[in-house]
Amino acid sequence: MTNDAKARDRKLALVTACISIGLIVTSFSYPAQSSGFPRILSVTLLGLSLLLLWNQRSVPKPDVEDSKEPPVTVEDAQATSGNGQAIWKSRAFWMFIGTLIYAGAISILGFFTASFLYLLIATLFLGQRKPIVVTLFPIGLCALLYLLFRVVLRVAIPSGFFM
Amino acid sequence: MGGIWSGFLAALQWDMMLFTLIGVVAGVTIGALPGLTSTMGVALLIPLTFGMRPEVGLAMLGGIYCASTYGGAITAILINIPGTPSACATVLDGYPLARKGEATRAISVATIVSCLGGLFSTVCLLFLAPPLAQLSLRFGAPEYFLLAVFGITIIVSLSEEGLEKGLISGVLGLLLSVVGMHPLTGYLRFTFGQSFLFDGVPLVVALIGLFSIPEVLELVSSESSQSVEVVGTYTGRPLQHLKEALTLKWLILRSSIIGVIIGIIPGAGTDIAAFLAYNEARRASKTPDEFGKGAIEGVAAAECANNAVTGGSLIPLLTLGVPGNAVSAIFLGGLLIHGLRPGAALFAENATITYGFIFSLFLSNILFVPVGFIMARYATRILRTPRSVLAPAIVVLAVIGSLAIRGLAVDVFLMLGMGLLGCIMKYNGMPAAPMVLGLVLGTMAEGELARALAIVRGDVLAFLLQLVTRPICIVVLALCVLSIWQGISNQAKRKRSVGQEA
Q1: Would you call B171 and A37 a contact, using CB atoms and an 8 Å cutoff?
Q2: pLDDT tens, B419-441?
Q3: What are the residue ranges spanned by the domains of chain B?
Q4: ipTM summary value
Q5: Which neighbouring-strand residues pair with B181?
């Protein structure tokens, strides 16, 4: 295991330990009959977090083998590569932010209008430049979902100004 | 017998057949596209089943499950990338066969044996599930509580990347399941005054977020080119290879049995079954040296076993409510949404739905043969679906899926929150499957514990005494111990082998 992975595990253990302490404290505000099970779980989480922290306690000096170990995920690659690309510069980050804005826009514009705009912008953002794909894909998918959920299944989907 | 017959007739109705076909087409596509898994496919498409009759909805989900398990073979053979984890063992011989110009042969045999493996496992489901469901009539609250604990112990065997992280993931899932009303007292816990949490975290919303958003973000962050290199082409004369597939009858039988047993054992998945069957095929082969260089037996064993898992994994789910893997946990969500609870009642009171669903699995396993053959011809085009189209489409499907459950816009944020949690877990090497099991089984564990304690008027000692004196409790307790022991010994073996490789 690389030093980077160990450091991440330690951070993870600390975060889950903090969460478990918060949950234990909160559970004391509930009647005993309703809080026993969550309290047992929170204590177990605390124990497991401490165990993870204990197992990652030793920090070996960086050695040749560690530095040669190939990155496992894209995030690993970004973290270990010389580029040191900050998270806010990654496409995934902006995709997620865009999706949050899209989720917020659903209540105002309605699902279908917001989805059309999201599909259009996201497709362009992800590098699609073919005009036919950029225009027909959002229209086609929205029309298909409208037909399926509104017309066939009659599921209540939030509407906005237009539809 | 009446239930079986009415189920058989239900499976022959036009809407059942149509939606099974739709599920199969969606499943083969999901399986063939690298990065999209069976789990994500079933989770994303559960909301589509809301407006359907339960058996029709379940038939569609069954179609996706069976077909996506098979669909991974197409990419494994053509581009050396398993479309789903279940096709990891298929790559070993499938890709070398494609390089030799025998992609058509490999895909044809893989399709036929996948169908046979799936059919075998559905026969097992049909005949093994009802007696097991009858046994569940003898279960009381302590037995069900222990059964939930047994399900939770499976987390130990699902924690491939590290026991502590797997257990943390499982406990986090259990903690998410206690959000909302207490099953007996009705007292609200961890809702922070938010009314949308009063009924707890909606299972399907959580599952959609947990499995789709991390996949989408990985898709968009990948720097690789938008199209993939396809080595072989499928020219399509499948029936030429039917005879060859049938000559492997003993290998098919052995791999099917391995698949069903692995499916029934909670915690073990399609990938494990495929590798086990592959090893057994190599051991039994007269030419074991050919394995890894393009042996058709290798492809057949792996593909037959992974599809044989599908029916097997539904046996403990439908009879006892214990999901053995992440996909069957999502199936449980699908059952509960339609007001169906696993157990004897499912086979007695809802026999038409249950047997209709089982018979639809026969249909799914047969339908993916022609669908697979047709889609394999267009695999090159499917595989070239640009990420710029795929990723936003998955997000929109995830959003409409979350909205469709309760019609609450806040559920979209809940789904995205779970997605973010999934990303953080993935980044930290924490598996998501234990969290799903925790989320599903937590409600059952807490509810049955509360009921069992209420029966003995809160006397913990009397409750513990019940656990070690009731015969079924003793058996389930033994299974729990066995499951933990097996998980820990597997972990130790994995660590030893990693140490030896280093």
Answers
A1: no
A2: 999 999 988 888 887 888 888 88
A3: 2-221+237-501
A4: 0.83
A5: B188
